[in-house]
Amino acid sequence: MKAKIIKKKDILDRLINGYEVFAPVERDGLILFETIGSGSEALLGYQSSKMPPKGILFPQSETLFSYSSTKDTANIGVPPGLEKPRLIFGIRPCDAMSFRLLDKVFDGECKDPYYINRRATTVVVSVGCTTSRASCFCTAVGGGPFSAEGSDLLLIDIGDEYVVQIVSDKGARLLEERGFEDAGEDKLALVPEVIKAAEASMEPGVEIYGLKEKLDNRFDDPIWQQLTEKCLGCGVCTYLCPTCYCFDIVDEVVGSGGERIRIWDSCQFPLFTLQASGVNPRPTVRERFRQRIMHKFSYFVDVYDQIGCVGCGRCVTECPVNLDIRQVLNSIAQLEVVK
Amino acid sequence: MPELTNKIKEVARNLLQQKKVDLVIGFERGTMPSYSTPCFVRQDEEVDRLIWDSFCENNLAKYLVKRSEKVAIVAKGCDVRAVVELIKENQIRRDQVVIIGIPCQGMVDRRMVESALERKEIREVKEKHGELIIEGDDFKEVLNRDEFLYPSCKTCTHRNPVIYDVLVGDAITELDTDSYLDVEQFEALPAEERGEYLSKEFSKCIRCYACRNACPLCYCQECFVDSSKPQWIGKTTDASDTAIFHIMRAFHLAGRCVDCGACERACPMGVDIRKLNRKLVRDVKEWFGYEAGLSLEQVAPLSTFKPGDTEEFMLNP
To answer: Which of B163, B46, B158 is nearest to B99 (CA)?
Structure first.
């Protein structure tokens, strides 16, 4: 492992210059990723942020372009690019993994310049999880408390210091530039124990193996009705999900000009699939909640060969009626495949 | 509260066995410590899922709208008030619903507990004699549950169900009348400060509509925010659009809101949604002597008209 070492209290001050830094902060009792002016503002010991960091790369509302017209002319205005490169500090490995999934969508077959530009100028510094929450299930969906997927640097907490694991060239260049010291053998020797203890504390409570086949097989099963009966049909699970990326595009028109804006949308809303004819192919929460599960655990797998969920557990803790995705998946997993 | 749990099960079992209802809506144990969750029971053998504890926070009246079957509902004081409003608004028939009323001791605010424990991960919660015994990986804390009730429970003056078919548990002493001190203090602020406060609160909103969808009285077939023809408000998180959503929703609930707090409990972002609702609850009480959901007979003041009504608000040159 290529690694550096840094004192916890020094790290942000060493990284902050030249970057617009997003870090976990507490605002009105909520832990959110916001820009910070100095290292002391960041909350290092948090467990999970209320909102996922996806909004930094894929904002909830984003002007794609503006337009105006006169009798003879039409003008298109493109929003300005980022002033400074960005650094996202202290996200959890599950959230860093979510960037990998978003990359597949926005930087795959279709290229989304808005996302790609932000992603290219952003350094991702994640911090491994030494403890897990009762809602965590990253290990069930291919992640782990010290997974480096999606990060440029991964911090491993060994007490007063972080061992900084170099994951990408982007991360390596940053550390070289800031003159971080190499981690000695004595420090590196502490790492495996930390990781082992964290992994042992994980109780994901869900089993994904063989699930896709059953989902595909049980699309019309009456079980969906039972599983979703309590769903309120709100957008909490999707808006707080680090991997939900569905969006809508709206025009905000004023006079002869306006803005074309991309906004988050949610498959849990009836409008998501309401057709101009008035027909809605997903008329109730049964079809809409099933869509959320199918998209992540079947369709995403078909297209990208990976599960579209990182197991962060936000939908578990924040659902107003405790409709726990793990319980839904387990209920499906218990069914037999019908030939 | 094992005795209440047992009585609820007994009542539910009898109702199902005697075919008096097709469905019992109550609560069951959630998937996490300090979470209870709505539960739909149709067979006697499922009755044992039902529970009652300090985390039965959802307003189950939400699930009564657009049902055709006969339903029994396990209902706290505020849930019953919502049922009363739904009956008055013709969303469910009185003879279609069996109210299993529970005198409510107030529900525990999970986020307040988490914050008191400095967000240490809770692994187990037990309740005994008004105490919450909370255990985590390296701690054990005992909290007095009454200090951790939801804000709406702290001001609730109708803990006992106002109507019911079966009462489970003994009636409890109601709190003194609600002084609406919070509303008065807010009204006393200068207009700019009130505006600033509300703007700050609404700026946290992510337009997930959990408040609307958790509200038992928000049952419009098409909510004004979803209308595209005409489009009343924008769909982005623009501050004025978000404010209009909350203001219009509050007005639409004027004289109907039972102040159960379901909106705030559902809100993931901690928006002070009740600020506007409570102002309107207080105004309706003061001006019309009406509190929503207290009786089936009392006429809802904003749904009626008398020729002698003063109308200075309509035109005041």
So the answer is: B163
